[in-house]
Write a structure and sequence with these properties.
36% of the residues lie in helices and 16% in strands. Helix 1 packs across helix 5 and helix 6 crosses helix 11. The termini are far apart. The chain is built from 11 helices and 11 strands. It is of the alpha/beta class.
Length: 334
């Protein structure tokens, strides 16, 4: 039996994108064993996984931190991955994963590493001589790695849950936060979106966020009718279950877009410094649900972590609340 070590350590959205490919390959090759190496915090993301898929948690801020931690990790993996028929599918391509790759190469294992297309991404986000065209998606880059290791990576994934529960009232989820400012719609404008949505009949609005955003979202929930907050109140699996009961998510270019995609929930996504052309759009999402404006400077960043060189974040601020609400109404009508 072949054991394939699959490496994608972070971040949450990127790990989520591995699931359609990983589940498809694992189901297609039931006699092989797939060992998914990822952050311990994300292991509950793998709901209803194939029986031949095991999630191996890594704790890069704990026992697996630094060089000593990597050595400990390799010892732990050696106890599990002992067969000579071992492959490594490195979907991350960072220093930590390269060290793991090198160890298994030394043992004579086949190793395939993701091509991140860094040059194309630099040209897409450059201030001068920008080349605007769609790049290969992260999902297809992951598929390429599996193809290099000899697997057919054609997709057969249909969602983490087999069905969506019947509901009465229309439920909209609003996830207004992202990791970086370049991907975060201004809060005062998003509050206006929530206010306008709260005035529409037969809608229930649920606000999503982490514990640190909870107070902000509770204020909105208290202020507007038919609005509630679940920020920081649920486990990852509970969030996925609730998303599965949600008719529409409104999010940034963030992990919530990818989580909703795993449960086949449509997403209205707002894009600022980043761009869908970089290949990070949600799995099976309708491109007509994207909200963005055309500026010569966009995109200026792959991850939204660079400061705005214009200084005004026009890419986000020029998206009006009316534009967002009208897009939501259009999607709900469809």
């Amino acid at each position: 039996m072949t054991t394939t070590l699959v490496i994608r350590l972070s971040s949450l959205g990127d790990v989520a994108v591995t699931i359609p490919v990983l589940y498809s390959v694992a189901e297609k090759y039931p006699d092989d064993h797939f060992l998914m190496l990822t952050q311990g915090a994300w292991q509950s993301l793998f709901v209803n996984k194939p029986s031949n898929l095991t999630v191996f948690p890594i704790y890069t801020k704990g026992k697996h931190k630094g060089i000593r931690g990597i050595i400990r990790l390799l010892r732990e993996l050696s106890l599990i991955v002992q067969t000579k028929e071992t492959k490594v599918a490195d979907l991350h391509g960072v220093i930590r994963s390269f060290l793991i790759d090198g160890y298994f190469r030394f043992r004579g294992c086949q190793v395939a590493v993701i091509d991140k297309g860094r040059g194309d991404k630099r040209r897409l986000t450059g201030q001068k001589n920008k080349i605007m065209h769609p790049l290969k998606t992260s999902l297809n880059r992951y598929r390429e790695v599996f193809e290099k290791t000899g697997y057919d990576s054609s997709l057969r994934f249909s969602g983490l849950f087999s069905e969506r529960p019947a509901k009465g009232q229309i439920r909209i989820g609003v996830a207004p936060f992202a990791k970086h400012q370049g991907k975060t719609y201004p809060l005062e404008q998003m509050e206006e979106v929530v206010r306008q949505l709260s005035e529409l009949p037969d809608l229930q609005i649920t606000l999503w966020g982490g514990k640190k955003e909870g107070k902000q979202l509770e204020l909105w929930a208290e202020k507007y009718r038919n609005v509630s907050s679940v920020a920081g109140q649920m486990s990852l699996q509970e969030e996925l279950s609730l998303m599965n009961q949600t008719d529409l998510m409104v999010s940034m270019d963030s992990a919530n877009m990818h989580l909703a995609s795993l449960v086949n929930t449509p997403v209205v996504s707002i894009w600022g410094a980043t761009h869908p052309y970089a290949g990070f759009y949600g799995f099976n999402q309708d491109e007509s649900n994207i909200i963005q404006i055309d500026l010569l400077c966009r995109p200026c960043s792959i991850f939204g972590n660079k400061p705005c060189y214009r200084g005004d974040y026009a890419c986000l601020k020029q998206i009006t609340p009316k534009m967002v609400v009208e897009k939501i109404k259009a999607v709900l009508r469809r």
